[in-house]
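Quick bug: Alginate export family protein output formatted oddly.
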Amino acid sequence: MRIKRTRSMLMLTACIISITGKAQLSLSGQLRTRTEWRDGQGAPLSRGQRPAVFTSQRSRLGLLFNTPRIKTNLTFQDVRVWGQDASMINRTTAAANNGFMLHEAWAEIVLSDTASKKNPLQLKLGRQELIYDDQRLLGNLDWLQQGRRHDAAVLKYTHERFALHTGGAFNQNKEQGSGTVYDNTPPGAYTASTNGAPMYKSMEFLHASLRQPKGKISLLFFADQFNTYLTDTAGGNISKTLTTGSWSRFTTGIYLTHTFNTIELSASAYHQFGKNGFGKKINGRLFSIAGSYNPGRLSVGAGTDITTPQFDPLYGTPHKFWGLMDYFYAGSLFGNNGLADYYIKTKIKTSDRLLIAADFHQFSPASSVAGYSRSYGQETDIVATYTLTKEISFEAGYSHFFSDPLLSSPAAKNIVNAKSQANWAYLMINIKPSFLFK
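Here's what came back:
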């Protein structure tokens, strides 16, 4: 009876939308499973530790409603590991493992005259993904099953090839009667930024971009603030007491792309200063340059990324840049010596359905460490993606890390009796059906 009622409501909604002729309703789903074999993913294992094997699953349901004046999106998701819940109960094994949440819930309204199809001024409010440029500093981190999102407001202005976005957020743990103190330690085992930092209390950003016939140039200014706190080490235990006030961090820089026939170039440079979420004064920089040759089905590229010791890549997608095994700027810290990544990346499309990619990275600290050679190690990544249909794809990957002594030293990962080599393999099945009602 309940199924029939739901089906009737969907049919009624579709009929109403078709009658108006000015609105669209689309339903989208995703079921993505990923089976992983981890023998040192994220950090080297100590000798004697055995590899881990598990399957995680992301389940999403999205509802997008679009009219000439307003666009809304609701995306529900559930993320969990197969078997984490007992099979005969109606709740999760532990509250910390509850992976059901609202991933996106936003509305974007047109503030300008809707008679013009250009709609240059728009306001986007609510829980949303922030994706800019190559996602190095601001991205949705889609590789992680839970992804990344922000509770924010973004004002957008677009005129021909120029776009200007400005936005901000102000976080609180709950409705309060007085004060704005914010406990910025995220729940569970997840860090807020790409480098293990706490969640911001507030943030503001300005992003301007200009599209050229064969490229793009964009400027970013990002500021985030963190709640101040005092630490007490009495009795050998470390305790944190939140205080009124905030530390401010500022990041600014430029991103460029340009295409010369079959050659594509990109470069970026960012400067970061102020105080981070731990109250430490910082002065960091990031430089990146890359080029690729794309004659057809084959793509060959090379590049280098350099981050100085105090730079934090904010809220981006590190899995896309610094090796698929996520040794750097991901879940496991690697010291405060910065990173120099020299890489070669290749892709070949053997058919309309099969894409094979192979990458090689040489990782080194940006600054030397006394007593060690200036190298973290080398990583090789191989990924094959097969598209069965528009809605169904398969992806398999294998990565190998050859680590040098510096990586497992106290100055970096601090792994006692670490293995010198690490492996990681996965198989991911991605199913994404979609339905459109006009």
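Actually, after a second look the formatting is fine. DSSP finds one helix and 19 strands in the chain. Closing.
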